[in-house]
Amino acid sequence: MKNWPLWEVFIRSKNGLEHRHCGSLHASDATMALENARDVYTRRMEGVSIWVVPSAQITASNPDDSAELFDPAKDKAYRHPTFYELPDELKHM
Amino acid sequence: MNNNLIQYIYGIADNSLILGQRLGELCGHGPSLETDIAMTNISLDLFGQVRSYFQYAAKLIGGDATEDTIAFLRKEREYKNVLLVEQPNQDFAYSIARQFLFDVYHLLVLEELQNSKDETLSAIAKKSIKEVSYHTRFSSDWIRRLGDGTEESHNRIQTAINDLWIFTDELFHQTDADKAMVTEGIGVDVTLLKSNYFKKVNEILEEATLQIPTIEYFQKGGKQGIHSEHMGYLLAQMQYMQLAYPNMNW
InterPro entries from the entry (chain A) (predicted)? Predict the structure, then answer.
């Protein structure tokens, strides 16, 4: 079981919301990963749908590049849509 | 007070209680974090079912009886679980084999029990079926994985199936209370489940490339309260707190 690959788990907490990353686990294949995710991450009614993705399939940004990737956005407040009035019915923005 | 009904409830609920206790022993000792949580989840499902059965039994008994006195203060021979569920964990293969051999049976019983004339038992069965369907899926998957896995896992699960097979026949025995409850339309006639049980079990064993054991002599006694040597140790641990600190609460 030490050789089981790592999987990333995404849970949708209720219909209409997006799947959100909630953690990772070990499993030998996708079926086992789904069952393990059900047991480890949805015991307290956290979700209505599960996605599992092999961690190895995720391409991550390099922390060393953080300065050039993210810092330039810091002083561009005008990119936030805070200048619009949203109707009250619109949730989860 | 309908003594046959109470004994019938014990016959069903004690299986879940004792298996739940066995699975609880694995808490923190599972082979991986994921399987550890999965098996203790099953344990908690079973205890949840037991609580419903024993709350009902306590109401039937009346007086000072509670779900806790029924669970913790009976003598060994008053527990009516089958021998299969009290067998020790030994290794992961034994825990999975025991689970699998019980789950297939448990699901068949509940599918019939939901048609019981007794509304409480029918309601408990309906609620439990979802849980036990998942237990069956979990244990069947592991039987296939271990059987069709490495040489080591294949040998271990085959040994566990061979050793526990001797307890499968008892699942289909009937006590006097069972027979009385079947006549009243309350209980499940387990003798009718036997062929379907072995069909389902054998199907999965074959998929798992495992040999179906062929033995002629089977163990029995649990349903009459005559248990294997493991039961006393299990009860000593399970009942310790209530015996050392009577009426204690969390």
Answer: PaaB, PaaB_sf
